Amino acid sequence: MESEAPTATELEAHPVVRAAFAAAWADSFPDDPALRHEEGGFVYYNPTNADVAVRRVLPGRKDELRLPAPPVLQNYYVVATFHTHPNPSSEGWIPDPSPEDREGAYETGVPWFVVTEFDVFVAGPERRVGGLNGPSGYPQ
Amino acid sequence: MVTVESVPAVSCDRALAVAHADAVTVYDQLQRYRIEVELEPDGWHIAYHIREKRVAGGGPHYVIDATTGAIVSKKYYQ
After folding, report:
1. Closest residue in A to B47 (Cα–Cα)
2. What are the CB-based long-range contacts (under 8 Å, 24+) for B4-9?
3. Where are the domains of chain B?
């Protein structure tokens, strides 16, 4: 059984995570100013069989998404969060992780992926802090 | 030697009003934010930060010219 969580780079390349990013982006309605909003959720890892799973949270607002307490999945650890930034830079919006995103990532102890019109950004630690032990939700 | 700091032509309240007038056109429910204000050499720096923890998102950040009250720069974080 592995004791270290996968890195943000490894997670970003995983097909389950890539698919979740694409689905969240589409569900954010980035091309519709009236319906545009943030989507996202949690990325989980099972150290016994190396399985990766994703759970979405409720849709957010135009400029915000609540990521308070990840639901518990038996034998899985939360190893990252993800959310979209659907508002376009052509209207003055900053695609990069906000100061709050960066603070939240370090505070929760897992990488926070941000899916944007340009690329996927990551804020926070390179991997889940403290390894795959302790509480299965946020490590801190 | 005595250092005398000059009083900006544009007051803190006036700079806040300028920032707020722009912010309400882009963001809703501004009571979600804690506002941080600092006077720097290039003007008033006004940043709206989300009050609630573990929320992905952001607010607007402005630099307001302390002489004219014009918006020098603005960033809409999300």
Report:
1. A99
2. B8/B39, B8/B44, B8/B66, B8/B67, B9/B66, B9/B67, B9/B68, B9/B69
3. 12-76
Q: What is the pTM of this model?
A: 0.92
Complex-level ipTM: 0.90
**pLDDT tens by residue, B17-44:** 999 999 999 999 999 999 999 999 999 9
Considering only the beta carbons, identify the residue of B32, B74, B78 that sits closest to A98.
Answer: B78
SS3 of residue B40 by DSSP: strand
- CA A117 – CA A48 distance, rounded (Å): 35
CA separation for the pair B45, B38 (Å, rounded): 5
pLDDT in tens, A43-60: 999 999 999 999 999 999
Contacts of B59 in chain A (CB under 8 A): 63
Phi, psi torsion values for B29, nearest 5 degrees: 50, 65
